[in-house]
Amino acid sequence: PRLEDRLRPGHFATDELTVKTKGGVVEITGKHKEQQDKHGYISRCLIRKYTLHQGVDPTKVSSFLSPEGTLTVEAPIPKTSRGPEPHHPVPHPSQPQTASLPPEP
Asked: Which of 43, 61, 69, 86 is the most buried (most CB within 10 A)?
């Protein structure tokens, strides 16, 4: 299993985006300088932070920007940090299902 998140940072080029980890947090930043458009001047800034699951190695976090403009940030989740897998028994159809009711007062 992998920790994975996708983000569409729209107005930011690859060289305007950074992904870094510090203190168990992934921080995505996007910033470009003031630019002129048809309405005047505009600058944009994006900051997004995610807390890593316990046990995820921050050096294993990777990111890439797709040709469509989707930024994917991912990291493997160690088996030990996932906790025990839940076990849910499924009753056999031939066995009647009973419900326990509290005794009447």
From this structure: 61
Whether 45 maps to a domain, the answer reads: yes
Query: What is the pLDDT at residue 9?
Result: 83
**Is 29 within 8 Å of 46 (Cβ atoms)?**
yes
What is the pLDDT at residue 21? 94
Does pTM surpass 0.70?
A: no
Task: Determine, yes or no, domain membership for 84.
Answer: no
**CATH number of the domain bearing residue 41:** 2.60.40.790
Question: How many domains does the chain contain in total?
Answer: 1
Question: Is the residue at 16 inside a domain?
Answer: yes
Q: Which residues of the chain have pLDDT under 50?
A: 81, 95, 97-101
Considering the chain, what percentage of its residues have pLDDT values greater than 90? 30
**Single-letter amino acid code for the residue at 31:** K
